[in-house]
Amino acid sequence: MPAAARGTVTVNIDECKGCGLCVESCPPKCLELAPELSAYGVHPARYTGHDCTGCGICFYCCPEPGALTVYRRIRAEVVPELRAVSNQPSAVSSQLSAISTSITGAEG
Ligand code: SF4
Ligand code: SF4
Question: Same domain, yes or no, for 68 and 51?
Answer without folding.
Answer: yes
